């Protein structure tokens, strides 16, 4: 890919902005790939403020990749409480086990090998390369992607005009030489504090002059916000709850239960208040999926099915 216009100004302005506004976050004080992986996985679907507390608690419990790999799975699921998307906890432990088994406890240093670890995609691999190993590559997390697209390509509405591969090449090219570590932090902060998804602060943005999305983006996000903010009226319009919410409730109920196990007939109404026999098949699917994914076991005691956190 050839260098795009205004790349140098883009770099200078982002770095200048970062020098004044950088956030001091606990995972930014380390180069330990294990700690960086923990923070990245937690941040995938959870707000920064919540992650700050959970990250520190987690490291007190599992301070090294070895300790996480050796821990019983149930302890890992219990420790993940409050973060949601429990599958991430399983991935994290499986990744730790793989690092111990296949790499003797040392994280691999290539994108391809990192992406073999469970739960590690392009963005997390890029973060590990930049933050732990100081490589000049982009992380391409959701904030970075948005900033790149808006500044160099234009508004992402109604559709993104460039795919991830193109944006990754662009992102790699935009990293200032020798600054991969700080650059990715700067871009992440800029995307979450200035060029945000819903309310970009174009009026005070240092990139405004050469940004290809400005000013159209302000009209686009305003139109889109109506959809984002809409609350459906009326008692019959309760939005459908996705199954991942019910899966999360099953795990949460088992976390709280004595010996982390419950009979299915007790569990079902805890997960869905108005549970009735029409829901039985659907609930079997939820429980079966969790068993298949390795979260729980189901055993039979006389006529009762018992669900237990693994
Ligand atoms: S001008 Fe607006 S859209 Fe463009 S980079 Fe700045 S905040 Fe983002």
Features:
310 residues; Endonuclease III, domain 1; Arc Repressor Mutant, subunit A; 15 helices; 3 strands; 2 domains; 3-stranded antiparallel beta sheet; binds iron/sulfur cluster; mainly alpha; 55% helix
Q: What would you note in describing this structure?
A:
55% of the residues lie in helices and 5% in strands. It has 310 residues and is mainly α. The protein folds into two domains: 7-210, Orthogonal Bundle (Endonuclease III, domain 1); 243-309, Orthogonal Bundle (Arc Repressor Mutant, subunit A). A three-stranded antiparallel sheet has the order 1-3-2. A hairpin with a 2-residue loop joins strand 2 and strand 3 (304-309). The longest helix is centred in the N-terminal third of the chain and has 17 residues, at 87-103. The termini are far apart. Iron/sulfur cluster binds at residues 150-151, 194-195, 200-202, 205, 207-208, 211, 213-214, 217. Iron/sulfur cluster is lined by residues 150-151, 194-195, 200-202, 205, 207-208, 211, 213-214, 217.
């Amino acid at each position: 890919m050839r260098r795009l216009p205004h790349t140098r100004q883009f770099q200078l302005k982002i770095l200048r902005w970062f020098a004044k506004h950088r956030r001091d976050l606990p995972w930014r004080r380390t180069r330990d790939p294990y700690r960086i992986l923990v923070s990245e996985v937690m941040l995938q679907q959870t707000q920064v403020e919540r992650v700050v507390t959970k990250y520190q608690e987690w490291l007190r419990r599992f301070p090294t990749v070895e300790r996480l790999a050796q821990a019983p799975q149930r302890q890992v699921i219990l420790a993940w409480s409050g973060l949601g998307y429990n599958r991430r906890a399983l991935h994290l432990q499986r990744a730790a086990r793989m690092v111990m088994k296949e790499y003797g406890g040392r994280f691999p240093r290539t994108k391809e090998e990192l992406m073999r670890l469970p739960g590690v995609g392009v963005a997390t691999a890029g973060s590990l390369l930049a933050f732990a190993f100081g490589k000049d590559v982009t992380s391409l997390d959701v904030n970075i992607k948005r900033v790149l697209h808006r500044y160099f390509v234009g508004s992402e509405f109604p559709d993104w005009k460039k795919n991830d591969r193109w944006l990754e090449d662009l992102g790699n090219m935009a990293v200032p030489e020798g600054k991969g570590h700080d650059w990715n932090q700067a871009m992440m902060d800029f995307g979450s504090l200035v060029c945000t998804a819903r309310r970009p602060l174009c009026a005070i943005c240092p990139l405004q002059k050469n940004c290809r999305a400005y000013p159209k983006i302000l009209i686009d996000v305003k139109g889109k916000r109506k959809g984002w903010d809409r609350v459906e009226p009326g008692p019959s319009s309760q939005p459908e709850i996705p199954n991942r919410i019910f899966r999360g409730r099953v795990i949460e109920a088992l976390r709280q239960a004595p010996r982390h196990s419950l009979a299915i007939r007790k569990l079902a109404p805890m997960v869905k208040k108005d549970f009735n026999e029409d829901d039985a098949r659907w609930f079997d699917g939820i429980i079966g999926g969790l068993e298949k994914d390795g979260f729980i076991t189901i055993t039979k005691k006389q006529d009762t099915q018992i669900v237990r956190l693994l």
